[in-house]
Amino acid sequence: MMWRDYWRAFRLDNLKRVWESDKGKYWLPIYLMIYPLLLGGSIWEDRNRNGNILLYIAVMGPIVFVVFSEIIHPIRLPKIMYLCPMTYDSRREMIRNGYCFRVCLHWGVQMLGLIAVVMYGGFDPVIGAEFAINSLLLSMLVAVEKKPGTTCQDGVKVVAIFSNVIMASALVDRDYSLVFKLVMLGLIIAVQFPLMRFSWIFIRCELEDAIDYEAGRR
Known about the structure:
Elements: H1 2-8, H2 12-21, H3 27-38, H4 42-45, H5 49-72, H6 79-82, H7 88-120, H8 125-140, H9 147-173, H10 178-209, H11 213-217
Helix pairs in contact: 3-5, 5-7, 5-9, 7-8, 8-9, 8-10, 9-10
């Protein structure tokens, strides 16, 4: 059921409704999709063209999918679901299970991209672990209504995207320097974790507010 409900959100009528409700949400996935065009084609022409193409498809492709999916899959249930005879605990379980399902799916999609990069380039366990952590944090983000939560999540999102692109590039180029690993680790510990800790406060509030229809409207 969760799988069916997940893909139902990609229907054209739902995409149109989300687009009309807030076009500003789409700026990041649209930017990521046209990023190669903004470079004037240089990404495809240098000596490592195959590596660049792989990075865009294997890393940016899943990221665009995850960011776009977060937009069209709000935590709140459709209005009709609040009219169904369902206990408070049952609705809470449905909302949390749906959230966990999306986190696991989004994280898995990004890990497939990492596997593709490793198969083309090389593998380093430290860089791979840092890539996986960033991907998990990115997968945990949701669309929240409260401005502070949105700001913190945007920080996590931007740092995760650019860090993963840099780490994937290092794997393709087989650059496993200790300094690079420590810088990426420091970025996760000093920036990502504090931002994610603050973001989680708002994510938990969204999960709780979504259980009750009136609470979610306040």
